[in-house]
Amino acid sequence: MQLSSIPTTKIVVAVVVVVVLFEKRKMEVLQLQQQQLLLDSHIRSSLSKTRAPTHSVSVLFRRRSSVGGVRCSVEVSSGGAKMVMELVGAFNELTERMNMNVLSTSSSRLLFKCLKLSIPILQTSPVSPDGRSPLSKALSVAMLLADLQMDAEVISAGILREVLEAGELSIHEIRNQIGAPTAHLLHESLRVKNIPSRIDVLDDDNAAALRKFCLTYYDIRALILDLALKLDMMRHLDYLPRYQQQILSLQVMKIHAPLAHAVGTTYLSLELEDLSFQYLFPYSYLYVDTWLRSHETGGVSLIDIYKEELLQTLKADPLLTGLVDDISIKGRYKSRYSTMKKLLKDGRKPEDVNDVLGLRVILSPKPGECALEAGERACYRTHQIIQSLWKEIPYRTKDYIAKPKANGYKSLHMAVDVSEKSKTRPLMEIQIRTAEMDRLAVGGTAAHSLYKAGLTDPEEAKRLKTIMLAAAELAALRLKDFPSTNHKGIETDQRDRVFRLLDKNGDGKISIEELTEVMEELGAPGEDARDMMQLLDSNSDGSLSSDEFQMFQNQIELVRNLEVRDDQYKKILDEKLHMADDSGLIQVYNKEFGDKLAS
């Protein structure tokens, strides 16, 4: 189309729109610059409170000393010290996510040993095709597995899988250095990895047969490991050509997402479905995502608004707070894939889709003999408080506390109307349960998950649950603590685990010999151990006390938190400041397309 054929009024409107958007972006940039100044001030304040230097990560390897009354700094650029930082930081973050019921001394030793073996190898390995370092990939998978409350063997296998893929160690070498159970899980996970290659046509029948084959012949924990690897892969597919993205997404949608439902890892299955949906049907995903995002107020999620309103109301109730020690609320929008299925399968209009918004109230009753009764009373009290806050939909209330499901599931379900006079809102589903009810619901294999996975036979469900429980019990027996040789009877803090693992002779301090040993295990020279000892040994007694090592851990945690926050800010800034599409042209709002998405 020639420029002369376009009506002058449309050209003027387009120019005005571009100018307005450009001025709006300028204002946003100025606001963000002001926010960044405040952020820098806050960071400097936080760093000064912890006595950490303010200008780089490497300052953690700097020690101030006085020479003739003049303060000076000693810079220690130690590769070994940096690897110790990575080791301690990764170990602490993993163990803090793990269930204390499975975090024994033996499992801590296994995890620590695995990290010591993997970190030196992965830090020097080439960058992955997706742009991440192999160590970053390995730790991402490990964090996923820890969040799923997997045991140390599975988490260790998740870390070592990246070492195995890099060709640095064989399964035989891992068996000799780490142990047979972890090596077995790695071997099984490699077998699971090749599942899609077993069939030529990925239709519904073949996919169902393949899923059943997996659940019958493979270690369930190896399946969960593979599912975590698949989710990590799906989160970083942008570097691949479009056709490869779609092939992998189809495999995940047909095989892995239903498997995740079958083994009870709903958290994995929902994200696998949504990511696959996004790559397979990008325009449909955009439609659903735009509609779901329309339930926001001034850029703030409705879920966050209602969650905070409910939390403050519950905490203000003296009867409820007298029954519980803690109240937590989780919120979610209905998954994009689930929403699409509702719209297509039932022919519903968007405004007729229920449960777009969802909250889960988790109550931790006060400990004692009556904790069970107090927890149930707290659930019903919460129900009453919500009734006074929003309009309940009576026919949607289901009491699975008074009448648990056949599989033992307990929870109180209700739906409320949160519409306002000026704005109609979708119904919001609320689940109320105790922490123990939630643990059983999330960790157990519910019939609902089995149904979604295509496993409706009760005998199949029973068999699967038996296999999963047996695998968990076997792992617990293997990692059960040996009788302790420490008769001091002192309960140690979670953060002391690393100190105790480094203090091999148990004398309450880390000697230069013990520090040198861990440095050598990480592949660093002995000089690094002496530099690090000089840096951390504040009283110059030639060893590290628990307090001195704790200060080191605090500094590590500070830096890791800053790195996470930096990634968050980078993402926000990228979204706010992104003004051009792939062709480099300024994006202009298309009203017709926008109206279609919002309708």
Describe this structure in words.
Helices cover 59% and strands 9% of the residues. The protein contains 24 helices and 12 strands. Strand 1 (62-67) and strand 2 form a beta hairpin. The longest helix is centred in the first third of the chain and has 42 residues, at 8-49.
Give the full name of the CATH homologous superfamily of the domain at 98-285: Hypothetical protein af1432
Task: Provide the residue-averaged pLDDT.
Answer: 74
CATH architecture assignment name of the domain at 98-285 = Orthogonal Bundle
Shape, please? Answer: globular
Structural class based on helices, strands and sheet pairing: alpha+beta
Give the amount of beta strand, in percent.
5-15%
CATH fold-level name of the domain at 98-285: Hypothetical protein af1432
Query: Using DSSP, what is the number of strands?
Result: 12
What is the end-to-end distance?
29 Å
Summarize the amount of helix as a percent range.
55-70%
Largest sheet: 6 strands, mixed
Total of helices? 24
Radius of gyration: 28 Å
Question: What is the class of the domain at 98-285 in the CATH system?
Answer: Mainly Alpha
Query: Which segments are poorly predicted (pLDDT under 50) over 5 or more consecutive residues?
Result: 1-6, 8-22, 39-77, 444-452, 481-492, 576-599
